[in-house]
Amino acid sequence: MKLIDGKALAANLRGEIAAGVARLKEERGVVPGLAVILVGENPASVSYVTAKEKACAAAGISSREIRLPETASERELLECIERQNDDPAIHGILVQLPLPKGFDEKKVIDAISPEKDVDGFTPVNVGRMMIGEPCFLPCTPHGIIKLIEFAGMDLRGRHAVVIGRSNIVGKPVAALLARRETNATVTLCHTGTPSIARFTREADVVIVAAGRPGTLTGDMLKPGAVVIDVGVNRVADATSARGYRLVGDADFASCAKVASAITPVPGGVGPMTITMLLWNTLESARNKSLICPIDARG
Ligand code: GUN
C-alpha cells in the first residue's frame, strides 16, 4: 500500500508558483494580492485561514487578512467584498466558508467578482467549468485531479466513485473526473444512496468527501482501489496536547489493508487545496496584468 504524499506534491508546485510570482514581479512589476475574509471565530476556519496566509507569504503573494466579528451584518460583509472587487491590488478574493448563522452564503458568493473568484465558487465560474470554458477551477477538486495524476493513475475507462455532493467538493470533482481529458466513468453517491458499498466495491478510485469519519471502510473497497480522502474531522484525543486529532472520512486502518494507495489525513488533500488557491491567485494576477496594463502599473 502506497501513501499518496500531498505534502510533497504541494511543495513541488509551490516552488513553481513562487518562481512564477517572482517572474511576474520582475517582468511586469505585479505582486499577486489575495484578500482573505473570515467572519467569526470558528476554530477550524481560523486555522485554515492562517495556513492560507502563511502559504501566500512563502510564495511571495501578498495576502490581506480581513476579520469581521460574528456580529457583523451581511451588509458590512457585502461592502467589504465590494471594496476588494474594486481594488486593483487584489487579484483574488476568498470568503472562508461556512459563514456564521444568519448570513446568506449564496448572496455573499454572488457578490464576488468572477474575475477574482479564486475559489471557483461563483455561478459564472461553476458554469464555465461545466461547459469547459476557461475559468478558475475550485481548489480541492483541482488538487484531487493533480494528486491522482501524481500517483501515476490513468483514469481513462476507469470507474470513479465520489461520496458526497457538496458544491465545494463532491459535485465539482465528479464533473472534472468526467471531463474528456480525464475520461473516468463517474458515480456520485450521497446520503440518499441506499447502498454506497454496492458502488464503491466496483470502484477503481473512491473519493470520499462526506464530512463524517468512518464513511468508507476497507470492506467497501475492491482490492487495489485508490482512496482519496477529503475529510478533515476533529476527534477528541486526550493523549494529544491539543486535545484532538484529525481523521479523514475513510477508516484508515481497514482501508489501508485493501487499497493500493491512499491519501493520509493530514498531509494528503489538504495541502493541495491551499496550493491550488495560490495557483489561481497567480493566474488571476497574470491575466489581469495582461488585460489591464494600467492596473499593473498602479
Ligand atoms: N471551506 C472549506 N473549504 C473551503 C475552501 O476551499 N474555500 C473556502 N473559501 N472556504 C472553504
Q: What structural keywords apply?
A:
298 residues; three-stranded parallel β-sheet; alpha/beta; binds guanine; single chain; Rossmann fold; six-stranded parallel β-sheet
User: How many individual domains?
Assistant: 2
CATH topological fold name of the largest domain: Rossmann fold
Low-confidence stretches: 291-298
Architecture of the largest domain, according to CATH?
3-Layer(aba) Sandwich
Percent range for β-strand residues: 15-25%
CATH class category of the largest domain:
Alpha Beta
Strand order of the largest sheet: 1-11-8-7-5-6
* Radius of gyration (Å): 19 Å
Continuous helix count: 11
Report the major sheet: 6 strands, parallel
Task: Give an overview of the whole structure.
The protein is α/β, with parallel strands linked by helices and 298 residues long. It folds into 2 domains: 31-114, Rossmann fold, CATH 3.40.50.10860; 139-269, 3-Layer(aba) Sandwich (Rossmann fold). It has 11 helices and 11 strands. It has helices at residues 6-28, 43-59, 74-86, 105-110, 123-130, 139-150, 170-177, 196-200, 252-258, 269-291, 293-297, and strands at 2-3, 33-39, 62-68, 92-95, 159-163, 185-189, 205-208, 226-229, 233-236, 244-247, 261-262. The strands form 3 sheets. Strands 1-11-8-7-5-6 form a 6-stranded parallel beta sheet, sandwiched between helices. Strands 3-2-4 form a 3-stranded parallel beta sheet, with helices on both faces. A two-stranded antiparallel ribbon has the order 9-10. β2 (33-39), α2 and β3 (62-68) form a beta-alpha-beta unit. Mean pLDDT is 96; it is low at 291-298. Bound molecules: guanine. Guanine binds at residues 94-97, 119, 139-140, 168, 273.
